[in-house]
């Protein structure tokens, strides 16, 4: 197969092929960056929260209308928890101060020494009691679960900073790594929690994952679990149900709590799966939007290749007829247009690779996007290359069907 | 002559319907994608109160301790004010009006135990809030400044909450409900008021920057008297004090203050007052950081809180890249179309049409395609905005087209078509009449 005549034809009629190459280049630049963002958003929305079998877990918030005293609140918590545990289908129930991905909760700074001026991290702090780890379904990777002896009692109404805080805590592995990057074991390590000058807290256990309520991109994996019994104006119970029963269990738990409440209470229920949906709605909307744009992008590029090849075929009907009459086979004509297209597309892809990297640098500078990995460039280039050849096949085979007798007619 | 070109254009478009349809569709898709993403950005970054936004000012002091201070570093939580600063702002005579607000939540206690409890959330604020942000009243009126000082148990309800509590089209002024252990009297009902973005209380407990409604408003001092903490965000850089009294005296930040200036030119005076106030506080041992004391008008405030997410900007950049692709594509198709009409151009040139006349004729034809693409693009844009609204509550509040975006759609569509048509048109003008006539 002679490449030279194809190249010299291309050089003579530059505009059309250039426009096609330009389309391929723009497509590749946008496609690679868009797919990278899509993949990143989907990965973010599927990160584990630490809660095992999320689909079986929900929670119930109970808020008494009339304020209760500290001892009353703690007593009610026991009664309410017992009432929920008695609901058929409940595997376990635990009191907690907040839930991962629920987008509402508390965090506080931690330091390695009380004098350290800037905090090391600002993890979410979960208050809970024995049963919390099991109900959430957290995976303990080092040390032990909390025990009844670890639990401190916190009365936020009368206690100031440093009071009502336990001596020990469980932390997530991500937080432990940030606190002690070089340590091989985290047990027994001490950190300082809350306002500067706070008291030391000792790590007795490390859990694999427990995301914060915000589940943010960078700091969402930093959490501390404090064995604490606290009297907040509302109580929150996380409920693990038997498979497939969560809807019924949560609504029956709500009724059970209403029944035992001595004064009117406001209740509110939520499933962890709902929190996940709500938390990542924007991420999914973005991914969906970019996938749509990518599909349209490919369609437009393909239509451009088809249109341009059809035009070149139409312009050269007579020339093709002559070639056929002089003995060129069907295959030769087909190959001519496919090779021509490969040259154009490859040119476009080379330009597109540079354009994609340029676009990525621009987006990195403007919107702090991450660096585009090479796989996306390779994948985008391969996709456009294959698509380009597939697109040209139709018009090229029509060209190959041009009858040699055309050559004998005048225009 | 223009009418003749228009006629020629329409006729030529009819001659090759498949190609024309492809061009119109390509342009329309490109326009729809860019208009849809641009609309979202436009609404998100829109000015919710254009005639007044430069005169509504949020002051911000850095109350955090000196340790860990990196000058110029932006802390994600340092965007509210402490109770003591807010009290001083309210007592100052600065600006034409001033107010402060924080998010509250409560429940209406039913008269009988069996009745359901109704949840309420909204704002604790002062009487100046209503005229400052121009809230329309359906019934009644705001409470008075005197109500503010005497911690009156009064409330203003939203139209929706009033309808839910007392029935549709019922004037509830004078009715009472029980919340926080006290009886509150309804003094007014707000008619529909949903600014997007929710610039008055961007830092809120639910709904975020674009969604949600303040269902109830109560006097600031009344909420404080009932020891209500913020339902939104509270950030304590020092200790948070013991009990509610300690909390009020602490450096915790949880309130948003606002000043209304009589004229935007009064801003330097307010800045000077704030600097003097901060210096005075510093003498009392507060504000160790000596960080700049800042003022934000409405647009600056939304920028500071990053109301527009980077994602929305990314979507706009990528969809304009897509539009560029559609333009290049249309350019190729137009080139094909025009070059097949070289003979026609040759005849017209030979009959005396100048290059300018050919240029105008083909550009008119391009404009017709642009207009058709724009119209279809508008339809597709409405369709995609509708689809986007189904994605999330945030997006459902912002994916709405307004008149300026409608105009922008046409400018983008016709502009795109003209850009796409320039090269092919220029090429068509270059046709040499002699050559064309000879080959006939």
How would you spell out the order of helices and strands of chain B? HHEHEEHEHEHEEEHHEHEHHHHHHH
Residue share in helices of chain A? 40-55%
Could you report the average pLDDT of chain A, rounded to the nearest whole number? 88
- Rg of chain B computed from alpha carbons, rounded to a whole number of angstroms: 30 Å
Instruction: Tell me, briefly, the overall form of chain B.
Output: elongated
Describe this protein's structure.
The complex is a heterodimer of chains A (411) and B (440). Chain A is of the alpha+beta class. Chain A has two domains: 4-46 and 281-408, no CATH class; 54-279, no CATH class. In chain A, 49% of the residues lie in helices and 16% in strands. In chain A, strands 3, 4, 5, 6, 7, 8, 9 and 10 form an eight-stranded mixed beta sheet that branches. Chain A has a four-stranded antiparallel beta sheet with strand order 2-11-1-12. In chain A, helix 2 runs antiparallel to helix 8 (281-315), helix 2 packs across helix 10 (330-367) and helix 8 packs parallel to helix 11. The longest helix of chain A has 38 residues, at 330-367. The radius of gyration of chain A is 33 Å and the shape is elongated. The two termini of chain A are 29 Å apart. Chain B folds into two domains: 2-45 and 309-439, no CATH class; 56-304, no CATH class. Chain B is an alpha+beta fold and 440 residues long. In chain B, strands 1, 2, 3, 4, 5, 6, 7, 8, 9 and 10 form a ten-stranded mixed beta sheet that branches. In chain B, strand 6 and strand 7 (182-190) form a beta hairpin. Chain B has 16 helices and ten strands. In chain B, helix 2 packs antiparallel against helix 11 (310-339). The mean pLDDT of chain B is 87. Chains A and B meet through helix 2, helix 8 and helix 10 of A and helix 2, helix 11 and helix 14 of B.
């Amino acid at each position: 197969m002679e490449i030279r005549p194809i190249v010299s034809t291309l050089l003579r009629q530059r505009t059309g092929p250039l426009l096609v190459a330009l389309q391929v280049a723009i497509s590749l630049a946008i496609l690679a960056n868009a797919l990278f963002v899509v993949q990143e958003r989907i990965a973010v929305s599927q990160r584990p929260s630490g809660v095992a079998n999320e689909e079986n877990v929900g929670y119930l918030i109970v808020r008494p209308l009339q304020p209760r005293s500290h001892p009353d609140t703690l007593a009610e918590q026991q009664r309410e928890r017992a009432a929920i545990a008695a609901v058929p289908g409940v595997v376990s129930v635990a009191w907690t101060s907040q839930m991962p991905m629920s987008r509402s909760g508390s965090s506080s700074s931690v330091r390695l020494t009380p004098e350290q001026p800037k905090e090391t991290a600002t993890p979410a702090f979960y208050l809970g009691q024995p049963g919390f780890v099991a109900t959430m379904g957290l995976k303990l990777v080092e040390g032990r679960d909390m025990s009844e002896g670890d639990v401190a009692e916190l009365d936020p109404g009368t206690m100031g900073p440093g009071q009502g805080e336990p001596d020990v805590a469980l932390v997530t592995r991500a937080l432990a790594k940030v606190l002690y990057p070089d340590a091989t074991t985290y047990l027994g390590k001490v950190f300082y929690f809350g306002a500067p000058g706070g008291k030391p807290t000792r790590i007795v256990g490390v859990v694999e994952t427990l995301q914060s309520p915000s589940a943010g991109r960078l700091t969402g994996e930093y959490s501390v679990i404090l064995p604490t019994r606290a009297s907040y104006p509302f109580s929150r119970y996380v409920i693990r149900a038997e498979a497939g029963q969560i809807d019924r269990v949560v609504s029956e738990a709500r009724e059970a709590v209403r029944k035992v409440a001595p004064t009117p209470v406001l209740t509110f229920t939520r499933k962890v799966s709902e929190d996940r949906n709500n938390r990542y709605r924007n991420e999914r909307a973005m991914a969906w939007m970019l996938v749509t744009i990518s599909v349209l992008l490919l369609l437009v590029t393909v239509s451009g290749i088809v249109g341009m090849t059809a035009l070149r075929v139409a312009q050269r009907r007579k020339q093709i007829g002559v070639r056929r009459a002089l003995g060129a086979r069907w295959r030769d004509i087909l190959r001519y247009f496919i090779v021509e297209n490969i040259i154009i597309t490859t040119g476009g892809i080379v330009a597109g690779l540079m354009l994609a990297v340029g676009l990525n640098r621009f987006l990195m500078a403007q919107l702090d996007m991450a660096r585009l990995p090479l796989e996306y460039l390779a994948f985008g280039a391969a996709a456009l290359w294959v698509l380009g050849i597939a697109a040209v096949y139709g018009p090229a085979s029509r060209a190959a069907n041009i009858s040699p007798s055309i050559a004998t007619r005048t225009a | 002559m223009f009418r003749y070109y228009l006629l020629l254009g329409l006729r030529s478009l009819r001659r090759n319907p498949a190609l024309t349809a492809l061009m119109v569709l390509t342009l329309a898709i490109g326009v729809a994608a860019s208009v849809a993403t641009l609309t979202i950005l436009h609404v998100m970054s829109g000015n919710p109160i254009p005639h007044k936004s430069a005169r509504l000012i949020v002051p911000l002091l850095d109350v955090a301790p000196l340790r860990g201070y990196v000058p110029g570093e932006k802390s994600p939580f340092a965007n509210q004010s402490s109770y003591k600063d807010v009290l001083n702002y309210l007592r100052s005579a600065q600006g034409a009006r001033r107010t402060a607000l924080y998010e509250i939540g409560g429940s209406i206690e039913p008269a009988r135990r069996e009745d359901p409890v109704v949840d309420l959330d909204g704002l604790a604020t002062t009487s100046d809030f209503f005229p400052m942000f121009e809230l329309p009243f359906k019934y009644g009126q705001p409470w008075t400044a005197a109500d503010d000082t005497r911690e009156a148990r009064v409330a203003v309800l939203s139209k929706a909450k009033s309808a839910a509590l007392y029935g549709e089209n019922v004037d509830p002024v004078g009715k009472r409900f029980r919340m926080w252990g006290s009886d509150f009297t309804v003094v007014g009902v707000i008619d529909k008021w949903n600014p997007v973005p929710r610039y008055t209380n961007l830092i809120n407990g639910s709904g975020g920057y674009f969604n949600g409604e303040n269902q109830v408003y109560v006097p600031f001092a009344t909420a404080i008297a009932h020891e209500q903490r913020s339902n939104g965000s509270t950030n304590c850089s020092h200790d948070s004090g013991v009990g509610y009294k300690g909390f009020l005296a602490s450096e915790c930040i949880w309130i948003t203050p606002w000043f209304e200036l009589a004229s935007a030119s009064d801003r330097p005076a307010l800045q000077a007052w704030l600097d003097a106030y901060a210096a005075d506080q510093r003498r009392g041992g507060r504000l160790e950081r000596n960080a700049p004391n800042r003022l934000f008008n409405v647009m600056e405030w939304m920028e500071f809180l990053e109301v527009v997410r980077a994602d929305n900007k990314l979507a706009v950049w990528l969809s304009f890249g897509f539009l560029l692709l559609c333009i290049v594509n249309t350019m190729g198709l137009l080139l094909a179309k025009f070059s097949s009409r070289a003979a026609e151009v040759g005849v017209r040139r030979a009959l005396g049409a100048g290059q300018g006349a050919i240029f105008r004729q083909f550009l008119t034809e391009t404009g017709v395609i642009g207009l058709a693409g724009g119209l279809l693009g508008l339809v597709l844009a409405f369709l995609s905005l509708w689809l986007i609204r189904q994605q999330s509550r945030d997006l459902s509040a912002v994916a709405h087209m307004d008149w300026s975006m409608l105009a922008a759609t046409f400018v983008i569509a016709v502009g795109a078509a003209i850009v796409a048509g320039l090269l092919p048109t220029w090429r068509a003008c270059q046709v040499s009449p002699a050559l064309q006539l000879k080959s006939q």
